[in-house]
């Protein structure tokens, strides 16, 4: 079953942050790679994922592992 | 580890700066070359650490980042024992990032203010009837919430207890408070100015009307224009190629210093960030002035618009009939007004509302009897006066005499598109009221401004008869005007003008115009926050305020100019750096980093000017 996760990140400042975060989220198995969207100005990441393969915690972990704080997560 | 580093990043930056100052003072004041070198070495490590870690993390997800270029540059400087340069590069890179974060926050402040319209906590009803303060995120649908005077409404819902007045400016742009009673809808992001209400929650968070507006603005700020997508692609390959270039230069020349200088100078900066910051500032300025731009392509198209099509009712006009003209034939004006208003209070005819609005402060009298004459009007007795309110058919039925003057007055009002309401008191015509849908105040001046701003064709498209349409067009100085059009005819018209190479904007009030709004290069909705208006258009005017269109176009043009300036600045910096590295002896990696960070700040500061944009 596909679900959508919205991550509120710490304020993003550098342009390469987006590439890094995008790369980190794409590296999680079970996420829809095409759907990954990092909003630079809103400092948010949006992604669709397969809830039977992975969960939001895995995605949050991947983002935190490259050094970005996740302030808030919601899924629907 | 990385969390600690990012938390204390600013401290590390400051320490690096202090160490560098100490190093230079010990060199100049105490001539202690030894301790200076030692201090610079430590500074390079302290400042370099967060950069190394970030570069490593990026590599792990297969991204060659700017941090990697800087890391290699610092390591390269270590190899050739240029600790002075490595320390300065690390410091400038960190300090630049700090300044960028601070200034970027400013460009984003407009949207942040919007988000803060929704409160953090609210009072939720418990099973025992008490209220408990909870975080808004914990609220579910069907929860019952309490909002008191001055409180922000946290969700979309229905009033189930109490009453009050709400300021819904954040949704509708209209700052006049709206009264809220039992079973009225209330919206997240609005403010209860008066009263106390309990709400049954219907929609929460991103599903509320306000949440959708925020989401639209956020997506707009990050939506990319063709130019940006190009730059994105470009920078994806650019950073690795700088790395490859530096390695090749090193392999050929065996000159590490030249190779690391290339690494620093090659950092993509102003070019990548220049266009997005212009965008954010422009869209932010719009949001604060009640103009929602949906993305940067919209801004680019809008700045080039040469044909604007207008719907009439609700766009150029207010969309609801108002009293436009009155002629008195009785010396006792206040009596005539008072009797007319008293009769109209009893009526639910659409024109009655317009009359009551117009005579809202006249004395209301007790009516003894009323009789409705089908297709004519109302006959009433008020305090020994016989009062007739209606059309000329009614007056003829009661044999009310008309003078030639009256006849020509009435004919003149009808020719201007008025609906006529006649009032006769005791057998004499006392008052003639002309009611029509009026042209919005200031529209003529706004259209004039649009022409001066380079919009060549101003065209009226309307479902009304050609006579009324021509009248409005003449009054407003429009270039063309067409009547008798159905929604699909309007859409066809849009298509035709686009086919002839014009960039077409369509201004309409939403629902029946939505095909044209969607089809036009720029659909401008005179929105009051309805979903249809927001979704089908590219630009939404929050207050249905026509007056904001010139500001919107001016802002779009200024934003586009700003983007071009930023691209120019960025390219100029690259060219100057390239030339100087090839031809001068003073260029080194520290100066390169300074110019690099400086140029990023310059483009951000340049973009920030847009936040203050005002049309002269």
TrEMBL record, chain B:
TM spans (from-to): 12-30, 36-56, 63-80, 234-252, 258-278, 567-587, 593-611
Subcellular location: Cell membrane
Principal location listed in the UniProt entry: membrane
Residues annotated as domain P-type ATPase A: 122-218
Domain of life: Bacteria
Reactions catalysed according to its record: Cd(2+)(in) + ATP + H2O = Cd(2+)(out) + ADP + phosphate + H(+)
Pfam family name, one: Hydrolase
GO-annotated cellular components: plasma membrane
Keyword Metal-binding applies: yes
Entry keywords, A to Z: ATP-binding, Cadmium, Cell membrane, Ion transport, Membrane, Metal-binding, Nucleotide-binding, Translocase, Transmembrane, Transmembrane helix, Transport
Family per similarity comment: Belongs to the cation transport ATPase (P-type) (TC 3.A.3) family. Type IB subfamily.
PANTHER family xref list: CADMIUM/ZINC-TRANSPORTING ATPASE HMA2-RELATED, CADMIUM_ZINC-TRANSPORTING ATPASE HMA4-RELATED
Name of the protein: Cd(2+)-exporting ATPase
């Amino acid at each position: 079953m596909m679900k959508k996760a919205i991550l509120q990140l710490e304020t993003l400042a550098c342009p390469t942050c987006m590439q890094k975060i995008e790369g980190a989220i794409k590296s999680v198995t079970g996420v829809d790679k095409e759907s990954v969207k990092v909003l630079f100005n809103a400092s948010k990441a949006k992604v669709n994922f397969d809830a039977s393969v992975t969960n939001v915690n895995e995605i949050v972990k991947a983002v935190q592992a490259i050094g970005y704080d996740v302030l808030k997560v919601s899924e629907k | 580890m990385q969390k600690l580093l990012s938390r204390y990043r600013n401290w590390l930056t400051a320490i690096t700066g202090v160490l560098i100052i100490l190093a230079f003072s010990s060199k100049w004041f105490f001539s202690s070359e030894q301790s200076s070198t030692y201090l610079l070495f430590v500074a390079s490590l302290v400042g370099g650490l967060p950069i190394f870690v970030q570069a490593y993390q990026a590599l792990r997800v297969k991204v060659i980042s700017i941090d990697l270029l800087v890391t290699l540059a610092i390591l390269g400087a270590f190899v050739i024992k240029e600790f002075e340069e490595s320390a300065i590069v690390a410091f400038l890179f960190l300090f630049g990032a700090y300044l960028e974060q601070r200034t970027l926050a400013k460009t984003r402040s407009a949207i942040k203010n919007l988000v803060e319209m929704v409160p953090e906590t609210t009072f939720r009803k418990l099973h025992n009837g008490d209220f408990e303060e909870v975080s808004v995120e914990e609220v579910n649908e069907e929860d019952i919430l309490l909002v008191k005077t001055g409180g922000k409404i946290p969700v979309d819902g229905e009033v189930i207890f109490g009453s009050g007045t709400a300021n819904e400016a954040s949704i509708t742009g209209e700052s006049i408070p709206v009264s809220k009673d039992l079973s009225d809808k209330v919206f997240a992001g609005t403010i209860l100015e008066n009263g106390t209400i309990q709400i049954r929650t219907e929609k929460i968070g991103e599903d509320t009307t306000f949440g959708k507006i925020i989401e639209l603005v956020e997506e707009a700020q990050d939506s990319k224009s063709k130019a940006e997508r190009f730059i994105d692609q470009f920078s994806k390959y650019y950073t690795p190629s700088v790395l490859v270039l530096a390695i090749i230069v090193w392999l050929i020349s065996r000159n590490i210093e030249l190779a690391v200088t290339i690494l620093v100078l090659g950092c993509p900066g102003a070019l990548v960030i220049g266009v997005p910051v212009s965008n954010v500032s422009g869209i932010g300025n719009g949001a604060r002035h009640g103009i929602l731009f949906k993305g940067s392509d919209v801004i680019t198209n809008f700045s080039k618009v040469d044909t604007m099509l207008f719907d009439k009712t609700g766009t150029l006009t207010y969309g609801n009939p108002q009293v436009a003209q009155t002629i008195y034939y009785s010396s006792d004006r206040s009596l005539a007004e008072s009797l007319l208003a008293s009769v109209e209070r009893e009526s639910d005819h659409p024109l009655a509302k317009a009359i009551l609005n117009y005579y809202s402060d006249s004395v209301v009298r007790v009516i003894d009897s009323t009789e409705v004459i089908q297709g004519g009007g109302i006959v009433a007795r008020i305090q020994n006066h016989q009062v007739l309110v209606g059309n000329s058919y009614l007056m003829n039925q009661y044999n009310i005499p008309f003078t030639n003057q009256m006849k020509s007055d009435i004919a003149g009002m009808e020719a201007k598109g008025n609906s006529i309401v006649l009032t006769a008191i005791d057998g004499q015509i006392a008052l003639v009221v002309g009611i029509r849908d009026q042209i919005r105040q200031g529209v003529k001046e706004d259209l004039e401004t649009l022409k001066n701003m380079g919009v060549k064709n101003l065209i009226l498209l309307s479902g009304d008869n050609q006579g009324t349409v021509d009248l409005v067009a003449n009054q407003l100085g429009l270039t063309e005007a067409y009547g008798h059009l159905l929604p699909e005819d309007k859409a066809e018209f849009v298509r035709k003008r686009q086919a002839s190479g014009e960039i077409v904007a369509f201004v309409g009030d939403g629902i029946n115009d939505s095909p044209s709004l969607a089809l036009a290069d720029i659909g401008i909705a005179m929105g009051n926050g309805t979903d249809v208006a927001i979704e089908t258009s590219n630009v939404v005017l929050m207050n249905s305020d026509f007056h904001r269109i010139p500001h919107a176009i001016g802002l779009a043009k200024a934003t586009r100019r700003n983007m071009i300036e930023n691209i120019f600045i960025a390219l100029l910096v690259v060219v100057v750096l390239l030339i100087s590295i090839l031809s001068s002896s003073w260029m080194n990696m520290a100066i390169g980093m300074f110019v690099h960070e400086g140029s990023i700040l310059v483009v951000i500061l340049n973009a920030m000017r847009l936040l203050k944009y005002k049309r002269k």
